[in-house]
Every structure is written in C-alpha cells, then in structure tokens.
Description:
Blueprint: H1 2-19, H2 35-46, H3 64-78, H4 83-94, H5 109-133, H6 148-158
Helix pairs in contact: 2-3, 3-4
Amino acid sequence: MKAIKYALFSLLLPVLMLTSFEVSAVEPSEMLKDPKLEARAREISINLRCLVCQNQSIDDSDADLAKDLRVLVRERLTKGDSNEQATDYIVDRYGEYVLLKPRMGMHTVILWFGPLLLLLLAGGYIYMNVSSLAPATKKSAKVAELSGEEQAKLDKLMGSD
Length: 161
C-alpha cells in the first residue's frame, strides 16, 4: 500500500511543479486600464529591486515601498515617459542598487570583470607555483658520477660486496 502511495506521489509531484505559476504582488487597484502601458509597467517593475526585500523585484514584493515604487512607475508612464526615462527616474531617486541587473559602466567594471580577473590571477599563481615544483627534466638535471672511492663507500654502507 505504501508503495502505491509513493508511486502516485512521485507521479503527481512533477505535474504539480509544472502547473505551478508565479504570483505577482501587483494589486488590481494599481493596474493601468491601458493593457500596453500595464505591460510596459510590468516590464520595468520586474527589473527593479525591492529595497526592503532586496532579492525580489518590486513586481513580486508585498512591501509598502515596493507598492509605492510600482505606483510611481505607472505614474511616470502615464505622464508619457519611455521605459528608460521611468527607470532612470527611479534610479536617480534610489541609486543604481535598485536595479536587479546593474548597468555596465565605469563605476561597475570591477563588479562585472572582478571575478574573471581574480580567477585569472589565481590560475597564474597556481601555474607559477606548480611549475616551479615540477621535477627537473634530464636535460636540465646534471647527474654526477660517483668516483670509485665513493662507490666503494656506498657499497660498504649498503652491505653489498
């Protein structure tokens, strides 16, 4: 009986996972009547970070500040701003941190290329240390021949006659 329950559960779980959907925090009172403007507002708000939740977009957050930002974006769009102008307005007020995907610029170069630079430096450091530890090749190694006297001492120490 348990086996049947586990089999049904294992079949039902993927179906439930595939039918799950994302729930937005946007309230009906916030939505614009024009579907094109509402779609633009959603596109902008998906890319703006909730400053309270920090790892959610304002579109997904229930925080009061996120609601205020959603309303502000919609106000800017109804006043005739483009998507970029509305986003820039929010960024000017709250800083670049409000963007979930930071913009490429001189002030964010270290953010974008820092990990790659660290990886290259670490790889170079490891390469330099490992290559210096590698055994010397026969060409570079000079093998000294033992003299007859040294060979006799060695044989005596090794116990061979």
